[in-house]
């Protein structure tokens, strides 16, 4: 599912101008002690005063330093997890693995949905000092320059799972390699006119956002086949997008004999279109996906499997290492977990008999 889209800089870098608690107190018209109690949710602070102090903190982008947090009561034991689509299988698997790993070191997961553009913009705009967490995990979406600065202002460690994000420690897969595994399989079967259904996905990214499409192009070139850009269609993520993309490929004067879909759910949408058109899979047209979604096994879909839950578990281990201070010297290179071809029933040589 899943490019470094922002400039470098350690995840723990601080803004050039540091706002202090005294600045917040002056803006809110209260003492520093009252401001501290208000931001700490002290029960004896009036609601109106607490609201005024919090508003001042947000206006000034005030974030308590990790040192001040420790003096005020030590680590929180909580890790914020930013996820665009928690209901989707891919993100659910990442979260399951992450939670398992964090639970093993007595850390709690606090989930924040950052889905559509408006929801995401509102979250980062309101990212306040009172979100007391020890670390942040970004799940498979691109962080732009402004968002990178907001995360840095928290003064906590940031880790990414499902792809490399900004300059954070991260774990994912090699999307180009996964695409090559799929394409090399189709080419080995004898296909040369191979379509590609790429997807757009609300800012999500992989270590190489164009990795699967670049693999399509490179594999055909290596096989001596001229890549035909008409065979690449880009659709919204999901089954309906895959169904539409397959319909567009079938509308070509010379349709492909095989199709690589960006992911399994998109691939299954393509299969639906083929069957509704009265075409046989794989005898008339082969289809391969990437992910190894649980439904892929039930529908006998050939795919390239990626270890999604393992990516989440490893991200949790990186969080624990960061909190122990083991990642402060330098940001480690992105960790890439292996992918593997899973042969099932939706691919065969072109024109294979029934």
TrEMBL record:
Residues 19-73 form the HTH lacI-type domain. Keywords: DNA-binding, Transcription, Transcription regulation. The keyword Transmembrane does not apply. It comes from the Bacteria. PROSITE patterns: HTH_LACI_1, HTH_LACI_2. It holds the Pfam family Peripla_BP_3. This is LacI family DNA-binding transcriptional regulator.
